[in-house]
Amino acid sequence: MTMDTFDHPIEASPSPRQTTRCVAVGPYKIGGDAPVLIQSMTDTETADIDATVKQAAALARAGSELVRLTINNEQAAAALPHIREQLASQGIEVPLVGDFHFNGHKLLKRHPACAEAIAKMRINPGNVGKGSRRDPQFAEMIEIACRYELPVRIGVNWGSLDESVLTRLMDANAQRQQPYPPEMVTRDAVVTSAIESAKQAEELGLPGDSIILSCKMSGVQDLVAVYRDLARRCDYPLHLGLTEAGMGVPGIASSSAALAILLQQGIGDTIRVSLTPDPGGARTREVEVAQQILQCMGLRDFTPRVTACPGCGRTSSNYFQHLAEQVRHHIDERIPEWRNQYPGVEKLRIAVMGCVVNGPGESRHADIGISLPGADEQPAAPVFVDGERRTTLKGDNIAAEFKNIIEEYIQQRWG
What we know:
globular; Sulfite Reductase Hemoprotein, domain 1; 5-stranded mixed beta sheet; iron; 2 domains; alpha/beta; TIM Barrel; oxidoreductase; 4-hydroxy-3-methylbut-2-en-1-yl diphosphate synthase (flavodoxin)
């Protein structure tokens, strides 16, 4: 058996980000070489100021860097300045994104303070008006954006696609000798609507570096296909997300699959995981999932990561499961203070392994790792720090001693 000579590196990183324009939104940059940002959206009635402030604050504290709110009526538009003011009084300066459909042009004219309170507008070209009203109402929205120097996300949704674009492309397709399937034409219409609307906005005076695009689809493969084409046809920053990801595990899985494919190809500048919350569940779950997607893709770091083995017949004790849970809980409790005291601590990697098969090797690969005894193994747990065996823990205080080792390591490395 011959061994091939190592003659090329095996890359393990996403493709370079596609070159896009850079758009300023509040204190953030979107696109260019800025990091991929996380966005979420409130589901309260925006006119309910207290409830909306409470949820927007929770989303911001969880890590949502932009928070979108529905502005659908007079009461919601009037509430925006008060929401902005109350968030600021809590020290929360998260940029608020106003989501407008159908009547946005009227609401912003009647409530100029609303335009002053938001940091970005989101317009769906399919919902600004129909027929002869579409272009003038779209123009009014863009004129307001220009007046208040607001960036605009032109967000196309396949569930409310501009009928004029779809009809035009369907008619053209019908003239082909071999027409494409309707679903292919629909995907093209989504992309075309976004790009044509962006070009129209620029012609109306909106600077090209004030435009972000999104094309929301419900299916993973549809989303991937549309964004690949969108990235090929324009250089506007792109906001990624399934329009209705769903609940629980299916919603998390479908969002993770779609976003991971695109991010790996260097596509995407902001993301949202549009999870349907469980009844009574926290809205912040979608922010946590978005953070985990970016972190596991190696694009950003938000919190120390704990690697733990899944267990098997060799790990007859469930102690390693309890230890992994305790370590995770300890990190969740301590991370707010760690971030302030130890910049960079988010990059910490910890391994909690359950037997001798992969335990020592996996532990050595982490910054700090512990290999707990499995079935029929010696009742001892070697601890590895930076690849070297540091100590061996025994007895009833392994969890407390291991957490002390973590604290000492953080102080020494980032203190």
